[in-house]
């Protein structure tokens, strides 16, 4: 029996359905084949990468410190053999019985007196470091070690490439001045920093003393020149960041964001998580913006460092000064406290609060009450404002100290003490033949980031670990050698690691699965973007010919990083070609694309070298290195491999590019397109024609799509999971695709054969919209024009008052069109009454929806009577309408209120041509999103007898209207499965009706359908309903009218299925790996259930610990006479897996297990489905369980619930309450029976409350599948007991009659295990 499958693929669900060739649900294993697979959306790798980076950083710090100890060990053993042991076990508590043998009395040195004398002599580690630098005498070796240990441990950042540095040259404000100038030139802005020295004076000098951060920023604004209000806001945002306040990068880089997206673009530069938090911003910046972004960060770091170190000559000297200042301030404050009679406890609270946050008002209040001279009080207040009162040595500001300053102190210590301890002078010879001090190298050396973890994949796999992020290889003969900075290049193959890193970093082609993309700044890729943009442009109404394109590229794009509209016009004038009109630019004033890499390389190579085809591969290799390697030294090393002169290498290494393109060299350069007797590439075609990229790849006569399909379906040894990983799409999409394939495999297994066809659509997930601000800002810019008439300018005030309404779902689009049309009806030119937008006016589609489902602003107008605007048999407008409204249309176009595209649509004369109608047909039948095409290719490569067909989402939306059943997302997740059902039904209909999608019968049916629709629309113009008419696209429109391939019975069958009360629903269980526990370490707390932080600190009564260890899985045991769930932590699971402990032994150690009998089931996954005495539940942990049954309501009731909002009437809200607490719901959910009855009993109180809608939303949320506990009762009556806690402390106890339900991906296959059979 033939069958077809429909898939609705989302980032958190896959809806699926299988229909027979007769259009009925397929059945297998006694079940209807329709269902939904649910799963948690995959998160991006950013957070995991952050954790991995931190672990690696700490691991390498320990590695350096072990090497330092090794250097000192022999000499230290002769002086104090237990010194390192005392340091290692300095954490041991005197009451720690387990580690009592390692308790050394808390002494740093051998005796208490020695330890006391040391601390008296050196109050802080910086006092010791300073003494070692300035005093030329022999120090105790232990003191030298402690100082060097501190330097090696906290060696500073490596952001500055200088090999040597002093405090005086740590930052030059003129660098920031130059960065502002470079950015302004690149973007065509009038920005400049007039006086770099003024920034230094205000930020770290006397000019800014006593000023708040905000006041400093305001004062510095006068040091800048700028043009517009937007420029001023950008400069203010930059200054806000540099002084230490929040930086709004949307204002700096002219981005429009709102809600959660806006929050991501507002950051503080001193945030410890800045690098991770800023990744979302960095990903969207071009190279010029990245240069400014980095300059702002460097300026903040630089000025912070200057302020931190002041006029001192070393870090240690500056820190000792801060210590002394703190000491003097504290002494004064204590005297004030004593005079005011404050207790020690009260003072401690004030002091501690101030140290945590120096804006705390407690200290200020204490000082205000003190009997201080006015000038003294003012000075203290100014120091508090400047964050210079009671200064601390350890602050976030320390992160801005570069390693070179720490290194300078180390070298001075070595110089002073090397004469007494010669081993401090030990050296090694590096690969370049240089002799370097080992201790110096310990501070200077960084494991190249392209090496990754210093453990090979083979070693990781041998230990049973995950080697995914390991790629470095050891050289032959060094497989077991310990790694040090001194033998690194002997142990590891650095060159191979670099190449492997490049391969891992490179993106994959949007069209060719798994094919590596070109760098975004590749010469070839930039040429592609320029040609693609040029081919969209018209000059004096004509596309640009091949010769002109070549001239423009040679004369303008290869000399200017930004080619503006003015530059093109000036060029034409200079060539004697007169004035020109340019249309088609994506940006109003300039081209977005450029040949910046060509210009950059031209500074190193002459024109002849640049234009020589033989050098292009070398130039592309240079750009790849400049993209991959940010570190100058590493870039130099890689560039040297290209056999370039040293001078060129040094010059080229200073340039760093970011980002990868979307396309591969293979796609752009492979000869694909037949031209006469030869084939040419896409890049060739862009150069020789005026067609853009999308036109070339979608035009069937060029055969590009067929070639892409062949490449993507070619046989490969890679698994389907590997090929999905190679797709260019977000991790969340990849998880959805993987689950979709699991669904296909499950259905194929149940049916015993492959499907004939798989119809697929990608679900449109809810996005955080930034449209509201974008629309408002666009309108605001349009209404700034000084050329507008007075009556139009008067709309500006109205725009301000309507800003919030632009986001209204009910009226937002109409309001936007109202302002775009300058408040006038687009067909009559008459004023529109804004107060009656929703009642007297409608949105009409310029090209009717029967022709195309184009719902963009370019295809919509706001009018009063749309049906009278067209001829009875045409989609275009009557001559009368075009004549009466033509003047308005033209003025709107000239003022930028409507696009050229919209204007052309409005003014089109005559009917659409056959070619245009064929295009409309293609857009309704053919899905254009490449990710769906790629998934279709994967399906066809995996299933040899199956054809994969992508269905447009507009068809699914039309099918929803055909069956007249709305989506009820708020009720349950069935809508995913029903969309899959509709996708399949529409796909089967199209296959039967239009087997040849390019055939004449398709065109004739389209022509007949659209003409009939227009005539009916005209004939029914007197009806008030016509203004509300929304036509189907022609596919579903022909279904609605009925024919031999579709009848009303078919529609009724779909309605029947979509009213099923139950469909197959499965959830993906959580995996058993991840973080071991919540990260926060808590102090000792007898009430808290803590676990030890590591093997050494197991006694939580002495050391504190973690509060919550995460579960890997659960085990079901017979204990205490019950069937008890026991938690198996991730750390325990690893020990059990490695054989360090038996599961039964671990279980018996658990405090909740009293009388252990036996293990019933070794491993139950988090989220396991269970039938517990008739209640379907998910075991979300060993103590918590959730409902595992979907809510269902009749269509009419579901419609009412879905339409409720805060403005709904009390009558509807009470109806909603009665629906959700009805006897039918109680019968469906025995799980919630007692809880729902509590609500029924307080119905009268619900009627009386104000927040009815909020309460209903909580009830609705509580009734969802896998919902956590909600508390709706307290929202109605605070005195009543709320819903039960879905928790059984000490472990869930399952009854003997319970069943453990194991399901396949779809739920078609399941296995039930009765607990009674295990006893």
Give a concise summary.
With 1319 residues, this protein is of the alpha+beta class. The chain folds into seven domains: 3-43 and 719-766 and 920-1067, Ribonuclease H-like superfamily/Ribonuclease H (Nucleotidyltransferase, domain 5), CATH 3.30.420; 46-159 and 403-446, no CATH class; 167-309, no CATH class; 315-396, no CATH class; 506-713, no CATH class; 1081-1168, no CATH class; 1185-1286, no CATH class. The protein starts with a strand and ends in a 5-residue tail after the last strand.
The computed structural class is: alpha+beta
The helix content is 40-55%
Rg computed from alpha carbons, rounded to a whole number of angstroms:
36 Å
- Determine the N-to-C terminus distance: 44 Å
Shape: globular
CATH homologous group name of the largest domain: Ribonuclease H-like superfamily/Ribonuclease H
Number of domains: 7
Please characterize this protein's 3D structure.
- With 1319 residues, the chain is an alpha+beta fold.
- It has 7 domains: 237 residues, Ribonuclease H-like superfamily/Ribonuclease H (Nucleotidyltransferase, domain 5, 2-Layer Sandwich), CATH 3.30.420; 158 residues, no CATH class; 143 residues, no CATH class; 82 residues, no CATH class; 208 residues, no CATH class; 88 residues, no CATH class; 102 residues, no CATH class.
- The protein contains 61 helices and 34 strands.
- The strands form 12 sheets. Strands 22-19-1-2-5-23 form a 6-stranded mixed beta sheet, sandwiched between helices.
- Helix 4 crosses helix 19.
- The longest helix is centred in the N-terminal third of the chain and has 34 residues.
- It is globular and about 105 Å long.
- Keywords: Antiviral defense, DNA-binding, Endonuclease, Hydrolase, Magnesium, Manganese, Metal-binding, Nuclease, RNA-binding.
- Its EC number is 3.1.-.-.
- This is CRISPR-associated endonuclease Cas9.
């Amino acid at each position: 029996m033939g069958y077809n499958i429909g898939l609705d693929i989302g980032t958190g669900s896959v809806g699926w359905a299988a229909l027979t060739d007769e259009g009925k649900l397929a059945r297998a294993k006694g079940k209807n084949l329709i269902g939904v697979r649910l799963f948690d959306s995959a998160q991006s790798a950013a957070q995991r990468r952050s954790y991995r980076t931190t672990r690696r950083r700490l691991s390498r710090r320990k590695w350096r410190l072990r090497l330092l100890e090794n250097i000192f060990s022999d000499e230290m053993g002769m002086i104090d053999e237990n010194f390192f042991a005392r340091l290692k076990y300095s954490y041991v508590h005197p009451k720690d019985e387990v580690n009592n043998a390692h308790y050394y009395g808390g002494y740093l040195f051998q005796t208490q007196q020695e330890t006391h004398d040391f601390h008296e002599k050196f109050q802080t580690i910086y006092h010791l470091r300073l003494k070692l630098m300035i005093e030329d005498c022999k120090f105790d070796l232990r003191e030298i070690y402690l100082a060097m240990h501190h330097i090696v441990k906290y060696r500073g950042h490596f952001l500055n490439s200088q090999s040597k540095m002093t405090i005086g040259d740590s930052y030059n404000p003129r660098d920031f001045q130059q960065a502002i100038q470079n950015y302004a030139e690149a973007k065509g802005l009038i920005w400049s920093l007039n006086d770099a020295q003024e920034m230094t004076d205000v930020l770290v000098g006397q000019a800014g003393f006593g000023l708040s951060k905000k006041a400093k920023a305001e004062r510095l604004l006068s040091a800048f020149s700028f043009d517009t209000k937007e420029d001023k806001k950008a400069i203010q945002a930059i200054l806000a960041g540099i002084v230490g306040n929040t930086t709004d990068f949307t204002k700096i880089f002219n981005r429009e964001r709102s809600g959660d997206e806006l929050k991501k673009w507002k950051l503080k530069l001193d945030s410890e998580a800045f690098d991770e938090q800023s990744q979302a911003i960095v990903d969207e910046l071009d190279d010029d913006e990245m240069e400014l972004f980095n300059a702002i960060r460097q300026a903040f770091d630089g000025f912070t460092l200057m302020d931190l170190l002041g006029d001192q000559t070393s870090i240690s000297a500056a820190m000792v000064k801060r210590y002394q200042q703190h000491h003097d301030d504290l002494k004064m404050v204590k005297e004030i406290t004593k005079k005011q009679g404050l207790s020690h406890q009260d003072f401690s609270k004030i002091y501690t609060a101030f140290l945590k946050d120096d804006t705390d008002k407690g200290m200020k209040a204490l000082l205000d009450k003190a009997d201080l001279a006015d000038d003294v009080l003012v000075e203290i207040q100014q120091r508090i404002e400047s964050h210079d009162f009671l200064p601390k040595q350890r602050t976030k500001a320390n992160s801005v100290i570069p390693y070179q300053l720490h290194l300078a102190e180390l070298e001075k210590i070595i110089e002073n003490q090397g004469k007494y301890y010669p081993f401090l002078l030990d050296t090694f010879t590096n690969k370049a033949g240089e002799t370097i001090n080992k201790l110096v190298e310990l501070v200077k050396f960084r494991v190249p980031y392209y090496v990754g973890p210093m453990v090979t994949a083979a070693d990781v796999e041998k230990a049973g670990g995950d080697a995914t992020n390991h790629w470095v290889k050891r050289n032959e003969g060094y497989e077991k050698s310990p790694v040090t900075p001194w033998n690194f290049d002997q142990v590891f193959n650095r060159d191979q690691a670099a190449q492997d890193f490049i391969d891992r970093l490179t993106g994959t082609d949007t069209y060719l699965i798994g094919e590596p993309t070109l760098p975004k700044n590749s010469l070839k890729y930039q040429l592609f973007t320029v040609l693609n943009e040029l081919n969209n442009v018209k000059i004096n109404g004509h596309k640009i010919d091949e010769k002109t394109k070549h001239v423009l590229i040679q004369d303008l794009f290869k000399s200017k990083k930004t080619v503006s509209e003015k530059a093109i016009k000036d060029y034409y004038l200079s060539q004697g070609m007169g004035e020109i009109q340019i249309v088609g630019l994506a940006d109003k004033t300039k081209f977005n694309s450029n040949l910046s890499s060509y210009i950059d390389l031209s500074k190193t190579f002459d024109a002849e070298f640049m234009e020589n085809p033989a050098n292009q591969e070398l130039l592309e290799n240079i750009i790849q290195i400049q993209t991959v390697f940010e570190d100058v030294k590493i870039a130099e090393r890689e560039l040297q491999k290209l056999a370039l002169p040293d001078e060129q290498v040094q010059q080229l290494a200073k340039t760093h590019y970011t980002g990868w393109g979307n396309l591969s060299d293979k796609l752009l350069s492979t000869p694909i397109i037949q031209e006469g007797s030869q084939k040419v590439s896409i890049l060739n075609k862009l150069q020789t024609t005026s067609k853009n990229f999308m036109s070339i790849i979608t035009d069937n006569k060029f055969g590009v799509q067929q070639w892409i399909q062949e490449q993507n379906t070619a046989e490969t040894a890679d698994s389907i999971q590997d090929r999905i990983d190679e797709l260019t799409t977000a991790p969340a999409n990849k998880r959805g695709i993987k689950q979709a394939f699991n669904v296909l495999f499950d259905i194929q297994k149940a049916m015993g054969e492959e499907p004939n066809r798989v119809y697929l659509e990608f679900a449109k997930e809810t996005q955080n919209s930034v449209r509201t601000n974008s629309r408002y800002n666009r309108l605001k810019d349009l209404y700034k024009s000084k050329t507008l008439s007075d009556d139009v300018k008067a709309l500006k005030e109205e725009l301000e008052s309507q800003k919030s309404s632009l986001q209204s779902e009910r009226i937002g689009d109409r309001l936007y069109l109202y302002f775009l049309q300058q408040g006038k009806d687009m067909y009559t030119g008459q004023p529109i009454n804004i107060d009656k937008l929703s009642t007297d006016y409608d949105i009409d589609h310029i090209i009717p929806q029967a022709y195309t489902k184009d719902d963009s602003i370019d295809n919509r107008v706001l009018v009063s009577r749309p049906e009278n605007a067209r001829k009875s048999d045409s989609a275009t407008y009557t001559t009368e309408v075009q004549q009466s409204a033509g003047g308005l249309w033209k003025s709107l176009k000239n003022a930028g209120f409507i696009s050229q595209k919209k204007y052309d649509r409005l003014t089109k004369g005559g009917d659409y041509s056959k070619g245009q109608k064929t295009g409309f047909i293609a857009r309704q039948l053919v899905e254009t999103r490449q990710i769906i095409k790629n998934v279709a290719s994967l399906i066809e490569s995996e299933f040899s007898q199956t054809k994969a067909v992508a269905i447009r989402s507009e068809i699914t939306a039309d099918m929803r209207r055909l069956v007249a059943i709305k989506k009820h997302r708020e009720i349950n997740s069935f809508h995913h499965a029903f969309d899959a059902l509709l996708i399949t039904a529409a796909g089967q209909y199209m296959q039967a009706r239009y087997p040849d999608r390019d055939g004449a019968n398709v065109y004739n049916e389209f022509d007949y359908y659209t003409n009939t629709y227009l005539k009916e629309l005209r004939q029914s113009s007197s009806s008030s309903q016509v203004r509300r008419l929304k036509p189907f696209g022609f596919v579903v429109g022909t279904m609605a009218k009925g024919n031999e391939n579709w009848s009303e019975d078919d529609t009724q069958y779909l309605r029947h299925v979509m009213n099923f009360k139950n469909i197959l629903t499965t959830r993906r269980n959580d995996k058993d790996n991840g973080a071991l526990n919540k990260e926060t370490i808590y102090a000792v707390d007898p009430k808290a259930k803590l676990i030890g932080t590591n093997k050494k600190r197991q006694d939580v009564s002495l050391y504190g610990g973690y509060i919550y260890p995460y579960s890997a899985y659960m085990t079901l045991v017979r204990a205490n006479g019950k069937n008890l769930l026991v938690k198996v932590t991730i750390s325990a699971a690893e020990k059990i897996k490695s054989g360090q402990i038996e599961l039964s032994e671990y279980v018996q150690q658990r405090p909740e297990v009293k009388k252990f009998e036996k293990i019933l089931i070794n491993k139950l996954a988090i989220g396991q489905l269970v039938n517990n005495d008739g209640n379907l539940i998910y075991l979300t942990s060993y103590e918590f369980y959730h409902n595992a049954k979907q809510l269902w309501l009749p269509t009419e009731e579901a419609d009412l619930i879905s339409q409720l909002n805060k403005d709904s009437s009390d009558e509807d809200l009470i109806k909603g309450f009665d629906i959700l607490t009805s006897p039918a719901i109680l019968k469906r959910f025995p799980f919630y029976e007692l809880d729902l009855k509590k609500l029924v009993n307080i119905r009268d109180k619900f009627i009386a409350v104000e927040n009815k809608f909020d309460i209903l939303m909580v009830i609705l949320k509580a009734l969802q599948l896998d919902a956590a506990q909600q508390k709706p009762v307290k929202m109605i009556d605070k005195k009543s007991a709320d819903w039960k806690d879905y928790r059984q402390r000490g472990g869930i106890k399952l009854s003997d009659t319970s069943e453990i339900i194991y399901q396949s991906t779809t739920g078609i296959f399941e296995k039930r295990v009765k607990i009674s059979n295990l006893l």
